[in-house]
Design brief:
Chain lengths: 112, 338
């Protein structure tokens, strides 16, 4: 399933600059708000679900090469975080739903 | 575009230069490597044989497509195109069912077949779109020449970027320079509590290593180790500290040093989950007590030298396999993520 399809299915808000989301195919996912756990547990290409929305999310996402980050419960990054994410080619998506629901839906859509 | 593709697309009459010839091989290669499933359009817009030609008109107009598969339940029974629509409208047959105008013997291509197969079909039959079916003959996508062109271009663009990266890599830095000992030192000052710039140094270091020709896996390993060390300085150090990375042909040495507060109990600090991070750091998702554990997993050797009240020195070392040196191609197969 492409990121574009995920964005449509989960009704996600694209927070960073628009990209060709059809060309991005997330492989598996990881949900955690503890950055060191993400560093250790997430795999390149994963979609990362978290409520954290500060600058270090971008650093960890770039370092771990995740395909996209879903910021849950309406967590909104500051403008400089979005700018940094665009520079680092990190895709930030937003939703009002909590991480548990988002992870459940991703799993049901086959992101396993 | 390759001569082969030009021929397949029916455009001829240009002399193929040596440069073209070089590109041809890669375009052809890509056409063999890419599967139809990689480039097809998965957003299927189908109609039923009993729908009317007027509905075809509406679908093609609204979806801005030039043809659509006709499905009876889950079975592909035909295909309808703009040309069929024009024929029907010329006969004033807007309200007749699609089955009167659709092509019934549909040529399909398998989703696991290479793109070149689809190109051959396009060249042979002059049809404009191909339904793509899986091993159970179920329709999974539609393919036009435009989809193929786009897919091939994306693949070649990716190649080109990789080639550029390869060219930029200063592998000669280590291969052409003769000395008794060659090393490159990268040094970064890290400020205490500067959460906003956390991860900046490790991201620079990772990029530098990739440019030097390190495999993506090696660059990631170093990036993670350095990130955790960098965050430790930001979270715990009194006055910040220095991060120093020394790149040599056979090993990478990474080191942080600060002047306090020091670690009272190193054994405890090494336990997974143990942390002294502040409430501020914890609220940002730090302080999982996994930093040093993560570092240990990424490096071959780790040493902590710490005196309470004086400071901490953290030494990390990664040994490079002789064939993992800075010559390894960028597409070195990856081991699973750390």
């Amino acid at each position: 399933m492409t990121l574009q399809e995920l964005i449509t299915e989960l009704d996600l808000i694209v927070l960073t600059a628009p990209r060709d989301f059809v060309a991005v195919t997330p492989r598996g996912g990881y949900a955690s708000d503890l950055l060191s756990c993400v560093i250790a547990g997430a795999k390149p290409g994963n979609i990362w679900v978290t409520i954290q929305s500060h600058m270090n999310v971008v650093a960890v996402a770039a370092l771990r090469e995740v395909s996209a980050v879903i910021l849950t419960e309406n967590a909104r990054p500051e403008a400089d975080v979005i700018e940094k994410a665009n520079q680092e080619n990190v895709i930030l998506l937003g939703t009002r739903e909590p991480s548990y629901e988002v992870a459940g839906k991703l799993w049901e859509l086959g992101i396993q | 575009m390759s001569s082969t593709l030009q021929e397949l697309y029916g455009r001829k009459g240009r002399t193929v230069t040596d440069r073209d010839a070089q590109e041809i091989t890669r375009v052809e290669e890509v056409s063999y490597e890419l599967k139809t499933a990689d480039v097809m359009n998965r957003d299927l817009k189908c109609l039923a044989p009993t729908d009317t030609m007027r509905e075809v008109f509406e679908l093609l107009r609204v979806s801005r497509i030039s043809g659509a598969p006709i499905m009876e339940g889950n079975v592909l029974v035909g295909i309808i195109s703009q040309e069929d629509l024009m024929r029907a409208f010329a006969n004033n047959d807007q309200d007749v069912p699609i089955q009167q105008y659709m092509t019934k013997n549909v040529i399909t291509v398998k989703s696991y077949e290479p793109v070149i197969k689809a190109l051959e079909i396009f060249a042979r039959t002059k049809i404009g779109r191909l339904p793509v079916v899986d091993e159970n003959e179920s329709l999974v996508g539609m393919l036009t020449k435009g989809d193929i062109t786009r897919g091939v271009l994306v693949a070649i663009q990716k190649d080109y970027q990789e080639e550029e990266i390869r060219r930029y890599r200063a592998s000669h830095l280590f291969e052409d320079i003769t000395s008794d000992r060659t090393s490159l030192i990268l040094r970064y000052k890290i400020k205490s509590r500067d959460f906003n710039n956390g991860g900046q140094a490790s991201s620079y270091i990772k990029r530098a290593l990739l440019r030097l020709g390190a495999s993506p896996q090696l660059a990631r390993q170093c990036g993670i180790a350095v990130y955790e060390a960098e965050m430790n300085l930001i979270i715990h150090s009194t006055n910040g500290g220095v991060l120093r990375v020394q790149v040599e042909p056979r090993r990478i040495l990474m080191q942080t040093s600060d002047d306090g507060p020091g670690i009272p109990d190193i054994a405890k600090a090494l336990q997974p989950g143990w942390s002294t991070a502040s409430e501020e750091a914890r609220s940002m998702g730090f302080g999982a007590g996994m930093g040093l554990v993560n570092i240990q997993r990424c490096v071959d050797k780790m040493d902590i030298d710490s005196t309470p009240g004086k400071g901490t020195k953290l030494l990390m070392e990664i040994h490079l396999d002789p064939d993992e040196k800075f010559k390894s191609p960028p597409d070195t197969p990856e081991s699973p993520g750390v």
